[in-house]
Design a protein that fits this description.
The chain contains 10 helices and no strands. With about 270 residues, it is mainly α. α8 runs antiparallel to α10. It is elongated. The two termini are about 55 Å apart. It folds into 2 domains: about 160 residues; about 70 residues.
């Protein structure tokens, strides 16, 4: 079951809209609510404080109700959700609840939510059960609720609330359920650079001198024009510089090639 407490600490906050509707449809909320018994105390000798009684005491009380000569319904329905003895015993055994536990408000809410779960409300919340099937299931559990056709499930018993009221309560249950689900943030992977920064730095370091030596390649046309207008001595001086440049290139060529191979190996 989905138990998401709200600000007031209600353990059954998600299901509260439907629980309140059942209290209305069963007619218990117009009287003593959690302390109400079948026919408003007609078979218990008057009002009783169920919320202060242990489950063992409630069991004894339900036995007396069933033995009452005027109990024409042969029912032992007690509490806000009118839970009969057979159902209460089944829940108590399934949840391993001791007989000394109190049949207080929290216990009654807990048992009612157990019944909601058994009728498929959590399957409906997760999209694994249709609304029509859920309505029919709930009408089997509480005769005061309508089936998907708007009628009581059991012969001779009419629903005391409308389908619209039930679906409205279920819509609020779903809203609270969805609001209580954790929001999962999916991280988006950022595309990595094609060339790592460390490799780029190494490339600049290894090829820096080569770039410096070749920056003048784009000015060849200007050099030729200068040669045409210069003196022989100037041309000779330029030739000496060119020879030195060629020697430097001859020395750095193998080193540059080795650097390129090394970088390629690191990128592989």
């Amino acid at each position: 079951m989905t138990n998401v407490p709200n600000g007031a600490g209600d353990r059954y906050h998600v299901y509260r809209p439907l629980l309140d509707l059942i209290g209305l449809s069963e007619g218990t909320d117009k009287a003593r609510g959690y302390n109400e018994t079948l026919a408003y105390g007609a078979y218990t000798g008057g009002p009783v404080d169920l919320v202060k009684m242990t489950l063992k005491q409630v069991d004894d009380l339900q036995g007396k109700m069933l033995a009452h000569p005027k109990n024409k319904w042969n029912s032992s329905a007690v509490g806000r959700y009118q839970i009969v003895r057979t159902t209460r015993r089944t829940i108590q055994q399934a949840l391993s609840i001791p007989a000394t536990a109190l049949f207080d408000r929290d216990m009654q809410d807990r048992m009612a939510c157990y019944l909601l779960g058994g009728r498929g409300i959590d399957k409906w919340l997760s999209g694994r059960l249709s609304l029509e099937t859920l309505l029919d299931n709930l009408a089997r559990e509480w005769a005061s609720l309508p089936t998907s056709k708007g009628k009581g499930y059991y012969s001779g018993q009419n629903a005391s609330v409308s389908i619209m009221q039930v679906t409205a309560a279920l819509s609020e249950v779903k809203r609270r359920h969805e609001a209580g689900q954790p929001k999962i943030e999916v991280p988006v992977e950022v595309e990595k650079p094609v060339v790592p920064e460390t490799v780029e730095t190494k490339v600049k370091k290894e090829t820096g001198l080569w770039g410096w030596l070749t920056t003048g390649a784009g000015t060849v046309g200007g050099v030729i024009a200068w040669l045409r207008d210069s003196q022989v001595s100037d041309i000779a001086a330029f030739g000496g510089v060119a020879v030195v440049g060629l020697l430097i290139l001859t020395f750095l060529g193998p080193r540059l090639a080795a650097s390129i191979r090394k970088i390629r190996e690191e990128l592989a």
